[in-house]
Amino acid sequence: MSELVTGEAVALELRPARLPSRALSVLLDLAAAMVVYVVLTIALVASTASLDDAAQIAVSIATFVLVLVGGPIAVETLSHGRSLGKMACGLRVVRDDGGPIRFRHALVRGGIGVVEILMTFGVIACIASLVSARGRRLGDVFAGTLVVRERIPVARTAFLPPPPPWLAGKFSELDLSAVPDGLWLAIRQYLTRMQQLDPQVGRAMAERLASDLAARTGAPIPQGIPPAAYLAAVMQERQAREVRRAFANGSAAEGPGVGGLPASAVRPSGAPDSYGPPGWSAPAVTPPTAHVAEAAPAVSLGVPPSSLDVPPSAPPAEGERGSTESTGFVPPA
């Protein structure tokens, strides 16, 4: 991606076209121009048979210049940088600030293109495109233009697996302000593709990312937590903070699950944990208390909750809010 700054100081991220796609578009343009040139030459030879040899040569040269030089300039000017070959390859010529080109840009590109494409069979254009960081030839450099890709394949959003339920809320006090966006992107890419990696390679990547994340947050990785589970739990905590920041009411993005945990964090009983090594079992989630389950039928029959002889749950202490033992009291709906 190449960052272009417009006249309004807006940064545009565009993908410059490289040599293979540009060469294919030029070949398509030249093939179309040669077809038009041959057709016009046949028509002019038939219509100028009565002229002398000098006049026929002058007409042939004028036709060549008009079709192979003036044609691409007119097409790029009228189509705002999209010739036939560029339309087929999904390319477009734009200015350095991302705006559409005008006649002067197309004129400079076409005039220099005669030397670096037609006269040297594209050798100078290929060398200049390979040397340039954004794949520009000499015509683009002098005209202040850039060829970019318009059709970019959009990758499907991969599923981000939730962390184990026993880690929900464990990193709520972690400082994530010093973690850069590049590290978050690397962690997300690893979590979405960790099932496709070799176990040893995936374990090494998880350990490296976890150590980098712990160094950025200033808190060591808790003992007994696999690196992949640590990364998933911290990533979910970041997403939860983004949701609370986006919505003014601060409500959670998911409904309450078992024991007050998010619904996505609840793992069915007996399901394998994909974050730990083989043979490793995660701690079991503490289910809700028995008296709550017994009180649910009475509530469903219409008995008010106040008449139930159920002792209220004491709120967790300040030091126990992030522990895995505090499941909380969730009244039945």
Written overview of the protein:
Strands 1-2 form a two-stranded antiparallel sheet. The protein has 10 helices and 4 strands. It is mainly alpha-helical.
Question: Could you give a short description of this structure?
Answer:
With 333 residues, the chain is mainly alpha-helical. It has 10 helices and 4 strands.
Please describe the structure with a list of short key phrases separated by commas or semicolons.
single chain; 333 residues; mainly alpha; two-stranded antiparallel sheet; rod-shaped
Total beta strands: 4
Strand order of the largest sheet: 1-2
Helix fraction, binned, reads 40-55%
The geometry reads as rod-shaped
Q: For the report, how would you describe the main beta sheet?
A: 2 strands, antiparallel
Oligomeric state of the chains in view: single chain
Radius of gyration: 33 Å
Mean pLDDT: 74
Number of helices: 10
Q: Can you tell me the residue ranges where pLDDT is under 50 for at least 5 consecutive residues?
A: 250-272, 285-330
Q: Into which percentage range does the β-strand content fall? A: 5-15%
By secondary-structure content and strand pairing, the structural class works out as mainly alpha
Give the CA-CA distance, first to last residue: 51 Å
- Helix/strand order: EEHHHEHHHEHHHH
